[in-house]
Amino acid sequence: MRSFFVFVLLCLSAPALAQGGPPGVMPPDEGPPALDDLGESVLPEADGQEGARPAIAPEDDAASELDALFERLRTAEDPAEAKPVVADIQRRWMRSGSATVDLLMTRAGTAMQARDLGLALDLLDMVTRLAPDYPEGWNRRATVLYLKEDFGRALVDIERVLALEPRHWGAMSGLAIILRRVGRDEDAIATFHQILKIHPMSEHARKSLETLAAESAGSPT
After folding, report:
1. Please, which of 39, 94, 97, 111 could form a disulfide with 116 given CB 3.0 to 4.6 Å?
2. Which of 144, 119, 113 is nearest to 48 (CA)?
3. In the predicted model, what is the mean pLDDT of residues 180-197?
């Protein structure tokens, strides 16, 4: 898996070097990314919810509960059944176990929604330093780096997320989007299919696959 990420990093760097720009930056004819590009990979429903945070369960119990939720998500028969499971998983992903990190994440989310990406990145840099084993901190920072068009560094953070939580469909979606931007559509398709194995009701993954299929059908042979 790591060699795959290294290969994509090289793909990201090559166009920029040809343009005389820094590695990780796409050529100027690429349109700027937007929050909508990221679908389910950014700002989960847990953000902005009021009320007391649930108590943190012991690590083994929390892992078992999360495994059970993923099994329910995998076997959900329709979006209505999947929606509350998705929300529950996202809420659990947001739990850092640290009041300081939780506050930084909340402020970073607010900054992202206001498109203050510099502030969001500063806040998330602190999150990843304070909680290096917290996947959502890396995922949120990867999102900000993507929005800043620093795709190489975003990919490094995505790799960290998936090392900590291989089922993180949001990070996988970010990876697939970057793969599309560097012209690796087959790898993007494979990644979206992997998302659907974990989260079969992912509308973003399904729509992305439909778009890729339509683009492939319209391509000259």
Report:
1. 111
2. 113
3. 95
The answer to whether 54 touches 92, Cβ cutoff 8 Å, is no
Mean pLDDT of 89-118: 95
Q: What tokens were used for 188? A: 């993007």
The predicted-structure confidence for 152-174, as pLDDT tens digits, reads as follows 999 999 999 999 999 999 999 99
DSSP alpha helix (H) spans, 20-58: none
Give me the sign of the Cα torsion angle 172, 174, 177, 179.
negative
Query: What is the CB neighbour count within 10 angstroms for residue 114?
Result: 10
C-alpha separations of 101 from 124, 132, 164, 198 in Å: 9, 11, 17, 28
- At 76 the three-state DSSP class reads coil
Q: Kindly report which listed range (15-24, 27-36, 109-118, 185-194) carries the lowest average pLDDT score.
A: 15-24
pLDDT, tens digit, for every residue of 14-30? 444 333 444 343 433 34
Distance between CA atoms of residues 191 and 211, nearest Å: 14
Distant-in-sequence, close-in-space partners of 22: CB < 8 Å, separation ≥ 6: 16
Cα(119)–Cα(77) distance, integer angstroms: 41
> What's at 41, amino acid-wise?
S
Say which DSSP state 36 is in: G
